[in-house]
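May I ask you for just one protein sequence along with its backbone structure tokens in two labelled lines?

_____
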Amino acid sequence: MNRYGIFGFCMVSFLVVFSLIRLSEFELSDDAHQRTISFEHHQDILEGSLILPPGKISPPLVMLVHGDGAQDRWSEGGYIPLVKSLVAQGIAVYSWDKPGVGASGGNWLAQTLSDRADEAASALRKLKQEPEFNHSDIGFLGFSQAGWVVPKASQQVKTDFVILVGAAINWRAQGIYYTGQRLKSEGLSVENIVKAQAREAAAFDRQFTQESATPPCISRCTREDFERLNSQADARKDISAMQTPVMILMGADDRNVNPHETISVWSEELPAKTPRCIRLVADATHGLLRSEWFDYQLSSQWPWWKQGGFLLAGQQAYSPGSLSAISAWILNQQCHE
């Protein structure tokens, strides 16, 4: 083998080893530090997994609250770099399959956001019964749609901290913003985007009213039913009642939720005495990933090479400092700029 062949062989070997190391960030060891815990909500049995940091007595516990969609406990593996980052800082993590997803019974499409809040509160009560957490701080880390869920849940059960990422405020406004960002990425002019958003707003107002949101599903609930049931959602009332220390992290390049609206509403509506850390994270997406790499509305839009890049990047896929900021808030409510 000539020197170029040796060099090539070594480079391939290096890349294989590097890839295996990176891919290990998406593996959770199935050992004594992980166990299955189920709880009941509305006659449904919901199943999740608890990950404990090794050697830690009475660790703080964070409960993950999903955004929209049919998500299993680890969001098809997308949560795992975040989970491993938290566990490495001595933080326990619990997450569960949505109703009708994975090992959980029920149908998430039949839920109102109040149902989701009741569910999250039930999960927290269940975990409070686990002996490891008799002297632990326990709170929520929620994403996107959880902006409507977690403020309600934290008022139903004692919650020591809250973190919300990409939190939405108003269902109607969020949908119109989402459409505007989608059309912008497709290259439409500002004039045409404004017209399209006006048409969407008018269509929304024709389709969804306070009265239309109340009837139950005719049979098994569909996506259309879910949107009808929750079309009047607005987080302002629940924000104004929040007493739990809360961190709000919004990616400056969020294409799903208007980050400036969210920061403004939380800053104005949150009671003055409630501890808070409200931050706009530069160069970050809806999920706090680096926007220079992952500037999409949905992960399903990623081309295959972006999917591979996420696997290789692991925790480095997140905006610098965002994961450490989350851990610092859980551990001692520190707000680092």
Remarks:
- The radius of gyration is 21 Å.
